[in-house]
Specification:
two-stranded antiparallel sheet; binds fe (ii) ion; single chain; about 300 residues; Ferritin; about 5% strand; mainly alpha
């Protein structure tokens, strides 16, 4: 019976059916949608503590205001995801303010503080580009109507974020000292960006998310799309990254084994040491150095207010 219901829904969705309410969903659809929206909301929200670590180092008032505007956008994007989750019956207060840090679903890259304002530029150029790539795909393909409509605004704002990052980096490479900062930023952040798209299609080609059209393209297709924008940008500012366009296959290829080992303490990729996706997922689950501090920052105000309320 459940299998029939699944097949019927998959078939309807593949023909273009737009899901609007819980009544349109199977249990599996609801579960996959909640999972996807949680990852999205957590990613949007947890981008902010990382950006906050360096926005005060902005070289001009304009750059600082822009960084603040971007953080404000991200809070708005998170709000959209959590409101949709609330409409699906999720206890969002519990999710936001009582969830242990290691259970948040933001990308591993967001568990790291930034060293300088150039890294904020790289964050926008690489990670917001990844967010833009992933969410544009959702916006074009998702079968969930309320999300598709909400993403029209998000899409435009993400484009502004990544352009801001590119503008910071273009300016920085003109100064020899800051060019070094750009090189250092890309050395650890480029591969972090590649990991945003998750395990390789060889391990996971067909997923529930694709069957139910919560997304339209596979992980490797999206990674390829990201590379097709990021690598030419890096070339345009004279920054080397370990990837190039391969004429024979008409694809971007990586010049190192991916995934590869990462030294968390030193924030360094070991480009000569291949790793497995199982190990990468283990690293993601162990979380990065600032995971607890960043989640605490998000939850702090709520708990302070609760303490005040109880004592009054
Ligand atoms: Fe965002
Ligand atoms: Fe963004």
């Amino acid at each position: 019976m459940a299998v029939d219901a699944r097949e019927r829904l998959v078939e309807k969705i593949q023909r273009g059916f737009v899901v609007e309410t819980i009544d349109d969903m199977t249990e599996e659809y609801l579960h996959a949608l909640i999972q996807t929206l949680t990852i999205t909301g957590d990613t949007e929200l947890l981008s902010v503590p990382a950006l906050l670590t360096v926005y005060k180092q902005a070289p001009t008032l304009n750059r600082k205001i822009t960084a603040l505007a971007i953080m404000q956008d991200e809070l708005g994007h998170a709000h959209i995801a959590y409101i949709l989750l609330q409409q699906l019956g999720v206890d969002v207060e519990e999710l936001l303010y009582h969830r242990a840090a290691h259970r948040w679903k933001n990308p591993y890259a967001f568990d790291f503080g930034l060293d300088n304002f150039v890294e904020l530029g790289a964050f926008n150029a690489l990670y917001d580009r990844a967010g833009y790539t992933l969410l544009s795909d959702v916006g074009k393909n998702t079968s969930y109507g309320p999300w598709r409509r909400a993403l029209v605004k998000v899409d435009k704002e993400e484009l502004f974020h990544l352009r801001n990052g590119e503008s910071i980096l273009r300016e920085a490479v003109r100064d020899p000292e800051r060019r070094k900062e750009v090189e250092n930023a890309f050395r650890w952040m480029f591969i972090m960006g590649l990991e945003f798209f998750g395990v390789s299609d060889q391990l996971k080609s067909r997923t529930t998310q694709l069957d139910l059209k919560l997304k339209g393209k596979t992980n490797d297709q999206l990674r390829q799309e990201w590379l097709s924008k990021v690598v030419p940008f890096c070339e345009s500012i004279g920054i080397q990254v370990p990837a190039h366009f391969d004429e024979a296959s008409q694809q971007y290829v990586l010049d190192f084994p991916f995934p590869c080992k990462f030294d968390v303490e030193r924030r360094e990729w070991r480009l000569n040491e291949p790793d497995t996706w199982d190990n990468v997922i283990r690293r993601f689950k162990a979380r990065g150095p600032e995971n607890e501090a960043f989640v605490a920052r998000i939850q702090k105000g709520y708990h302070e207010y609760e303490r005040l309320r109880r004592s009054s």
